[in-house]
Amino acid sequence: MATNRTFTMIKPDAVENGHIGGILNMITEGGFKIVSLKLTQLTIADAQA
Predict the structure, then answer these.
(1) Is the pLDDT of residue 5 over 80?
(2) 37-40: long-range contacts at Cβ-Cβ below 8 A with a sequence spacing of 24 or more?
(3) Can you tell me the mean pLDDT for 30-41?
(4) Residue 2 lies in a domain
(5) CA angle 31-22-2, nearest 5°?
(6) Is pLDDT of 47 > 80?
(7) Span 7-34, pLDDT tens digits
(8) What torsion, rounded to 10 degrees, do the Cα atoms 39, 25, 22, 11 define?
(9) Cα(6)–Cα(32) distance, rounded to whole angstroms?
(10) How many domains does the chain fold into?
(11) Which residues form the domain of 44?
C-alpha cells in the first residue's frame, strides 16, 4: 500500500489569531495523521531566500 505525504503551512494571520488548534483538529478529523510538527519564525532574509 502506497503512503502519501503532504506539507501544510499555517499562515501567520491564523497563528496570530489563535487558530492553530482548530486547524490541527480539522486535519486529524479529516482522517490525516500528523507525523511531524515544527513551529518556526523565519527571518526576512530566510523568507526571501
Answers:
(1) yes
(2) none
(3) 93
(4) no
(5) 25
(6) yes
(7) 999 999 999 999 999 999 999 999 999 9
(8) 40
(9) 10
(10) 1
(11) 12-48
Q: What is the 3-state secondary structure (H, E, C) of the chain?
A: CCCCCCCCCCCHHHHHCCCHHHHHHHHHHCCCCCCCCCCCCCCHHHHHC
Distance CA(11)–CA(1), nearest Å, equals 32
Name the residue type at position 41: Q
Query: Sorting pLDDT into bands at 50, 70 and 90, what band is 35?
Result: very high
For residue 4, being part of any structural domain is answered with no
Q: How far apart are CA 19 and CA 43, in angstroms?
A: 22
| pTM for the whole structure | 0.76
3 found inside a domain:
no
Per DSSP, the three-state class of 18 is coil
